[in-house]
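Let us practice reading a record.
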Amino acid sequence: MTPSMLAVIPVRDGLVPAGGDETIAECGGRAILIGSQTAAAEVCTGIVEVHLVEAGSFEPGRWARGLLEVLGREIADTTVLVVPGSPDGRDLGPRLAACLDRPLLAGAISITAERVVVVRAGGAEVHTHLVHEPVVATLQPGVRGLEQHLEPTIAAERATGSHRLDAGDAGEARDRVRRDARVLEVLEPDLATIDLSEAPRIIGGGAGLDGPERFETLVEISEHLGAALGATRVITDRGWIDHAKQIGTTGVTVDPDLYISFGVSGAVQHTAGLGSPDYIISVNTDPHCPMMQLSDLAIVSDANAVVDHLHRLLNLGEHDG
């Protein structure tokens, strides 16, 4: 088998998930788009080969088996299948690996046909896996990045194949679907639990905040403003907020439209994971810290006092701290 790579991108209602374009670029522009309204999906112009598979509602087990039915040869001839590490990708990747009886290398930051580099232990360790057999890997969104000059194009314009996956297209495997975990309902995103990499608005808290109760206040503010809550590594190490909310190269890489930070100094490990927000607002007592220098609006003030004042202005009650 000649070493090769192919991106498998889950699509919902024509929307490519976080990290989708990066995954396609990592695979040299070769991709399968599977899901709903795949022909209308916008992908980067670097795409050179794309198969569209209309599969209806999100059912990762059925999708994985259906892909083998309609694109078995393309998949079997590919050494490394790469799925974006978005929420849907993290569901689809393991099922695809199980169907193909391949190892799964999750949380990769760099992938080639010969080598996959993954992070472990909360970003403290980097492991390199040489590819001696076909594998499935998930690529962390936001780590690779994209060339800024690339413009989006509609997937249908570059399609080299189009398929429709119906409930019965999985052949003999369809009888096993009943024993799989099934999607009973798709809920609207909950800002309290949404994956930070998918959040359009984020409020971040840093070491300038004086206690865990301040983050309880920020939760209420975030919910009122329609934003997700994140934090720096210092805060997650203190246990004030879950590690899943850590923004940065050793946490979650994000790319929101709006980022508001309170008491965040802007260490490079944090700012390198911010992506390119359209607007950044920062509150800090140090007007010269990196986070303030990156901001469109920099407010020189005590972040704790501003959090409390904002809480009152939004009629959310007065914080006791």
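A brief commentary: Residues 169-179 have pLDDT under 50 and may be disordered.
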